[in-house]
From TrEMBL:
<dbReference type="InterPro" id="IPR009056">
    <property type="entry name" value="Cyt_c-like_dom"/>
</dbReference>
<keyword id="KW-0408">Iron</keyword>
<dbReference type="InterPro" id="IPR036909">
    <property type="entry name" value="Cyt_c-like_dom_sf"/>
</dbReference>
<protein>
    <submittedName>
        <fullName>Fructose dehydrogenase cytochrome subunit</fullName>
    </submittedName>
</protein>
<dbReference type="GO" id="GO:0009055">
    <property type="term" value="F:electron transfer activity"/>
</dbReference>
<dbReference type="Pfam" id="PF13442">
    <property type="entry name" value="Cytochrome_CBB3"/>
</dbReference>
<keyword id="KW-0479">Metal-binding</keyword>
<dbReference type="InterPro" id="IPR051459">
    <property type="entry name" value="Cytochrome_c-type_DH"/>
</dbReference>
<dbReference type="Pfam" id="PF00034">
    <property type="entry name" value="Cytochrom_C"/>
</dbReference>
<feature type="domain" description="Cytochrome c">
    <location>
        <begin position="186"/>
        <end position="292"/>
    </location>
</feature>
<feature type="domain" description="Cytochrome c">
    <location>
        <begin position="38"/>
        <end position="145"/>
    </location>
</feature>
<dbReference type="GO" id="GO:0020037">
    <property type="term" value="F:heme binding"/>
</dbReference>
<keyword id="KW-0349">Heme</keyword>
<dbReference type="GO" id="GO:0046872">
    <property type="term" value="F:metal ion binding"/>
</dbReference>
């Protein structure tokens, strides 16, 4: 009996060690960041395109002038409510973080202390972004006003409040690579970068598994709103009967072909899209026309 207890204890120790190892954070490699220095001026446009302020502005903040990234916006899901944190360059935000710390947060979902971030931060999209672009965003972020509002803790149900378990989630859903594996033209490659990485369109427009991972087989084919209120529309071929010119006009102005106007969170996305040059809008339209169509 004593030997049996010892054997069970040894197995428990081995299993615990394996689980701890499997859930360990996997930061961006030092080699990927070698020689990269952020350019704050270039990062200003990328910051807008990545939609950072769209989530991290305080809910009642004014949108004019440099953004005050105090956080606080609530995102209701079946797992509980996530609150966007303060990411301003002060003590309550990311003050004192290095560019490498910020790149690791955006691309790997890892804090400077080595804790996992929840994928409400769309690092499963940003992980495909160019590390130089992320470093430029980080450099610009450090030029913005400081907010002294403490970040609000997430309100999550058990077991989703166990942050270490995100290591298992990342094994399932992170580092999946590109959805469009081999773009045929430079235009499609640019469109893929904007849609899949920088603008992270799939985070809202793609259905998710019971554990919250994106289902690549239903890429951009629409999804249930995480708060349970309605459905986010699909934007894959066969789901829009708009011309390429209609889609480009919507992305640029927020107006549909029948002169309806964009609303909700998409209004902020359109404001960000409107900063792109025409060739980038055309690349997004080309990409949306080249992905697999939704089933009838």
């Amino acid at each position: 009996m004593r030997r049996a207890f010892l054997a069970v204890g040894a197995l428990a120790v081995v299993a615990g060690g394996a689980a701890w190892w499997l859930t360990s954070p996997d930061p961006v490699s030092a080699a990927a960041l070698q020689g990269i220095t952020g350019d704050a001026e270039r990062g200003a446009a990328l910051f807008t395109q990545a939609g950072c302020a769209s989530c991290h502005l305080a809910p009642e903040a004014e949108e004019d002038g440099p953004p005050m990234l105090a956080g606080g916006m609530a995102f209701e899901t079946q797992f509980g409510t996530f609150y966007a944190p303060n990411i301003s360059p002060g003590q309550e935000g990311v003050g004192g973080w290095s560019e490498a710390d910020l790149v690791n947060a955006m691309a790997a979902g890892i804090s400077p202390s080595g804790a996992h971030y929840y994928p409400a931060l769309p690092y499963t999209s940003y992980q495909n972004a160019d590390p130089q672009d992320l470093a430029d965003i980080a450099a610009h972020l450090m030029t913005l006003p400081v907010a002294d509002t403490p970040s609000r803790p997430h309100d999550l149900s058990f077991p989703f409040n166990i942050r270490r378990s995100l290591g298992f989630w990342k094994l399932l859903y992170a580092d999946r690579g590109w959805v469009m594996e081999a773009p045929d033209t430079p235009e499609l490659e640019r469109g893929r970068y904007l849609v899949e990485a920088l603008f992270h369109c799939g985070q809202c427009h793609t259905t998710r598994t019971a554990l919250g991972g994106m289902e690549f087989d239903a890429w951009l084919q629409g999804a249930q709103n995480p708060n349970g209120d309605g459905r986010i529309p699909g934007i894959a071929p066969g789901q829009l009967d708009w011309s390429d010119a209609d889609i480009a006009a919507y992305l640029r102005t927020g107006l549909t072909p029948d002169y309806d106007s964009v609303g909700g969170h998409m209004a902020a996305v359109v404001r960000n899209l409107a900063t792109l040059p025409d060739e980038d809008i055309a690349a997004i339209v080309a990409y949306l026309g080249a992905i697999p169509a939704a089933p009838e």
